[in-house]
Design goal:
It comes from Podospora pseudopauciseta. One of its GO terms (molecular function) is [pyruvate dehydrogenase (acetyl-transferring)]-phosphatase activity. Its EC number is 3.1.3.43. By secondary structure, the protein is α+β, with helices and mostly antiparallel strands. The protein is built from 16 helices and 24 strands. The strands form five sheets. Strands 1, 2, 3, 6, 7, 8 and 9 form a seven-stranded mixed sheet that branches. Strands 17-16-22-23-11-10-24 form a seven-stranded antiparallel sheet. Strands 12, 13, 14, 15, 20 and 21 form a six-stranded antiparallel sheet that branches. Helix 6 crosses helix 7, helix 6 crosses helix 8 and helix 7 runs antiparallel to helix 8. The longest helix is centred in the middle third of the chain and has 28 residues. It is globular, with a radius of gyration of 28 Å.
Length: 627
Amino acid sequence: MRRAAVQAFRTTFQYTARGLGRRPFTTSLPTTAARRLLSSTSTTAARRTLKNHSNATGIPPPLLENINNNNNSLPLPPPLQSSMYYRRASVVLASALVGYGAWYSYNGTDVNNVPVKRGYSTTTITDTSTADTSLPTRNVLVISADQLHTGTIVGDGPISKTTSEDGTRVIEMLNPEQATEKLRKLEESYLVNRGQGVVRYDLVQLPSNDPIEDDHTEKIIEMQPATSEKGGNDWMFWGVFDGHSGWTTSAKLRQTLVSFVARELNQTYQESNNDLSGPGVEAAIRKGFLKLDDEIVNQSVQKVMRANNKTMAAELLAPALSGSCALLSFYDSRSKLLRVACTGDSRAVLGRRTESGKWTATPLSVDQTGSNVDEASRLRREHPNEPYVVRNGRVLGGLEPSRAFGDASYKWTREISERLRKHFFARSVSPALKTPPYVTAEPVITTTRIEPERGDFVVMATDGLWEMLTNEEVIGLVGKWIDAQQQKGGRQSGLFDSVWSRTFGGGGSSKDGPGGLPVEVSKVEEVEGQKTPFRGVRQWGGNDGFVVEDANVATHLVRNALGGKNREQVSALLTLPAPFSRRYRDDLTVQVIFFGEGEGEGEGRGEVVVNREASKGVKGEGARAKL
């Protein structure tokens, strides 16, 4: 933080007040006058001040009369349906810099000097003729218990500060350029010139928790043929891991899950004469998942008990005490089969172009939560005579995912939990726990034949994305992005232009789908209890439309999930610091894999290289670890 000037400075706070769809107006207040009014002005005097300066404020007479007749309270639109919402409201903030700190006041009292909570506050307006117009104007975000407000402040002093007893905070809002920089900070893009059915994959992460509890992995394993009759092929893995109650379980999955699964697949590969098209593949993936979870949950306890060491216990038990969902895709380039293994509520969706030029969205996984009727039935069947095994869509009324790695408090017996808690570390045991384990890491696996020649692509993401966008919106947004790349011409290195053009360059897309997107409405009946979007534009109300501004398609999806063309909303949601941001958005991890035909061309044949244009988050070469 820059050292503040010793001399006090003068500043003006401007707050734009509007309901959705209303014409905005702005009020402003010099610091010195504000402090006098905040400390000594009576309600009558404040009302008189409003009348005297109505012309200076620019407030229409009917609205000004409304203020005068209602104890100086600006009329506000009724709140939205959500308990957490974003809007502009009228407040007064006076600030002055003294010494090395900042003084703030949040004017939120009624006529009886009782604080007005949850962002509803009185507004005092006075003459602004003495305001220093040479000072910079900055946007601010006011964060209260269940609302967001935006406005502008004039001055160059520090802004971030708690401003009232109920924890209301005022912080400087990111401008659009800063918001874009934050959005792209962790983006990566790779061009795959191996002639094995994949031409590119993009990914991005956007933290909400601090540190982020999500993680991800991407691995390409080059398989050498066991016989000389068949050429080599690639095994390609992509995974997103949605952690909860900490980051350690998802980090463990990033480090080890592909290795556990690949070992089991290799054994099946050797036993089946290099054929991975049979049912043994799903069994191998399932075995790899369960072996890793057993190491995390059960073998760790055995090691801790033998060692009787708290330092070792802290290291070994951390991945067991937190938890993580896992979504892992495995593509075998020889068979062109994509297996998607899902443990938890992350989701994979296939995009495929139709003859009309539009795209279809086909889910490749099912959200596994207590709200899923099949999962709830399974739990009740496995734990009869336990009426609270699923309560309010959660396992034992606590955990939303019905399948997960870690989460040992739902898997250990009561005796083990109490012993670990007494001597080492463990979470408190639920009173409803009777017949564990209640949660399993066993994945539900789907198999899909990919058609690279049709430009198939797959979007994999943690549930934070699906809380904001539907399957059709996500696939349509990728289709919209593909159209935009074609219109721009060459968008990546010359090596890959020909492959990309052959795959994605055909037939323009009709814009008749939902939201003007090139996507057909899905005719697939969803499993009851699947998550539907409730955040983003659905939380704030209104939709200014989608936009294409990013070279990385995963970043493009996240931008539109946050607000698209509504730059103010995007900036506000990206400005929110942890833990406040968790009220409005989850951690986000998104991967998009593009399939396509190509023999591997040019000097980079056989390589995976960084797509610099869409990889702000990659330092150095970065790609060697992916192969």
